[in-house]
TrEMBL record:
Organism: Timema shepardi
Organism superkingdom: Eukaryota
Record's keyword terms, sorted: Membrane, Transmembrane, Transmembrane helix
Transmembrane segment boundaries: 20-38
InterPro entries in the record: A10/PebIII, OS_D_A10/PebIII_sf
Family matches, as Gene3D superfamilies: Insect odorant-binding protein A10/Ejaculatory bulb-specific protein 3
Protein name, entry field: Uncharacterized protein
One Pfam family cited in the UniProt record for this chain: OS-D
PANTHER family: CHEMOSENSORY PROTEIN-RELATED, EJACULATORY BULB-SPECIFIC PROTEIN 3-RELATED
């Protein structure tokens, strides 16, 4: 039997058409699902609309800074960027700024350190309003062997260099986490620490004071320049 007419050769079987249409529908649905997922992921991040606000100008100008604090803490009038910050601040504090861009993380770190060092009462007001009292620091690194670090000059120097540096480039993951929580732990006397973390903090502070006094002084200068919290923290840890 011959191959048939050209029309017969190129005629599409109904079953083939159904398979083809099913594939098209599957691809279309897959595309919609991917698009929806991307939109959801984008929504998980805070807006970057105000990332170009000059924080240094605000921090150096008491009138501007107090205006933002009035907005955030005292229910005063808010600028558009202040309103956005107010709406996202509780989430950022509760979730370690995981929805922040890298620029937002660096900016929040700068502002927090400035308030702790220069306007500690205002920082306490911010914490009281936005930071959950039940929040605790991560226990992810509680298994780190502190005795091994303290007895190893190279390891200890690495952590000290990380904590004293302005950037986190030289930090291990646990060193970076420690560096991020020290300012907060200083102000609340390690209230968010579990017992193991308090014991570890006491051990490290005592070791540095006795064996590395210059490094301990540098840390106090960096994290508590006005010496407002160090003594209270040490007194609290002595109770353990």
């Amino acid at each position: 039997m011959g191959p048939g007419t050209p029309e017969e050769q190129y005629q599409i079987h109904p079953l083939d058409m159904k398979i083809f249409l099913s594939l098209c529908l599957f691809v279309a649905l897959l595309g919609l699902a991917c698009s929806a997922r991307l939109r959801r992921e984008e929504k998980k991040k805070f807006t970057t609309q105000y990332d170009n606000v000059d924080l240094d100008v605000i921090l150096k100008n008491p009138r501007l800074l107090n205006g933002y604090l009035d907005c955030l803490v005292r229910d005063g009038n808010c600028t558009p960027d202040g309103k956005e910050l107010k709406e996202s601040l509780a989430d950022a504090l509760a979730n370690d700024c995981d929805k922040c861009s890298e620029k937002q993380k660096a900016g929040s770190d700068k502002v927090i350190k400035h308030l702790i060092a220069h306007q500690p009462e205002d920082w306490k007001d911010v914490e009281k309003k936005y930071d959950s009292e039940e929040e605790k620091y991560t226990t992810r690194y509680d298994g780190v062997n502190l005795d091994e670090i303290l007895s190893n000059e190279r390891l200890l120097k690495g952590y000290v260099d990380c904590l004293l540096a302005d950037k986190d480039d030289s930090c291990t993951p646990d060193g970076k986490e420690l560096k991020a929580i020290i300012p907060d732990a200083m102000t609340n006397k390690c209230a968010k620490c579990n017992d193991k973390q308090k014991e570890g903090a006491k051990k490290v502070i005592n070791y540095l004071r006795e064996n590395k006094p210059e490094d301990w002084k540098k840390m106090q200068t960096k994290f508590d320049p006005q010496e407002l919290y160090s003594k209270d923290l040490e007194s609290e840890l002595k109770k353990i």
